[in-house]
Amino acid sequence: LLENLGNPHAGIPTIHIAGTKGKGSTSAMCASILKAGRSLTGMYISPHLHTFCERICMDGKPVTQEEFASLTETIWPAMTEVNNRDEYERITVFEILTAMAFTCFKNHTAQVQVIEAGMGGRLDATNVITPSACIITSLSLDHTATLGNKIELIAREKAGIIKPWSTVVSAPQTPEALAVIKSVCQDKNARLLIVGQDILW
User: Fold this and answer.
1) Strand ranges, E, within 51-186
2) What is the pLDDT of residues 129-187, one digit of tens each?
């Protein structure tokens, strides 16, 4: 789908955020800091509180209903073409929204994008990006039917967002979760910063 749209997710410096608790707050703080630093910032979050438009924000403001509709119309032919090929499962609503967010940020010439993973990380639709920085917020048991029923399994799924040579910031974790994150960082030659240990806040 993204190839059909000209790979709008590529080429924009990105912060990718996964975790169980605090993803939304962390995304909002990162986007706010970047905006205050005069960087034109796109932010993609889920879920929303009142309207789907809140999921895609440019410089701190949700896209308008008109822009949301325009993005839908832009994505629809590419989505239909991929679905008609019948090579994959049908594209999900979350995948469509993710493609819409990337397209929006490219259209606005965003200087940076803050992307929150929807569920898990390794197999999440947002995990097509190559982030400069990855953030893993506090981990606990969530979506156990999909991600696993042990904290180590969940940590492995969330750590799936870590890319080679990236910088990783982790919230304080249980020893079991932290061991997994450290192992993945070592395998990917990623630099790990632990809140409360390497940085205070």
Assistant:
1) 56-58, 61-62, 112-116, 133-136, 167-170
2) 999 999 999 998 665 555 556 888 889 999 999 999 999 999 999 999 999 999 999 99
Give phi and psi for 128, each to the nearest 5. Answer: -95, -5
Q: With pLDDT > 90 as the criterion, what percentage of the chain qualifies? A: 82
Q: Which residues, including other chains, have CB under 8 Å from residue 63's CB and lie 6 or more apart?
A: 53, 56, 57, 71, 104
With contact defined as beta carbons under 8 Å apart, do 135 and 19 qualify? yes
pTM recorded for the entire structure: 0.93
Bridge partner list, 58: 42, 61
User: For residue 62, is the peptide bond before it cis, meaning its omega torsion is within 30 degrees of 0?
Assistant: no
Q: What DSSP state is assigned to residue 87?
A: S
pLDDT in tens, 46-78: 888 888 899 999 999 999 999 999 999 999 999
Give the chain's largest Cα–Cα span: 51
CA nearest 57: which of 73, 69, 44, 40? 44
In the chain, the N- to C-terminal Cα span, in Å, equals 38
Chain centre distance of CA 64: 21
For 44, the enclosing helix (H) or strand (E) is strand 41-44
- Sheet with 133-136: list strands edge to edge: 61-62, 56-58, 41-44, 112-116, 14-18, 133-136, 167-170, 191-194
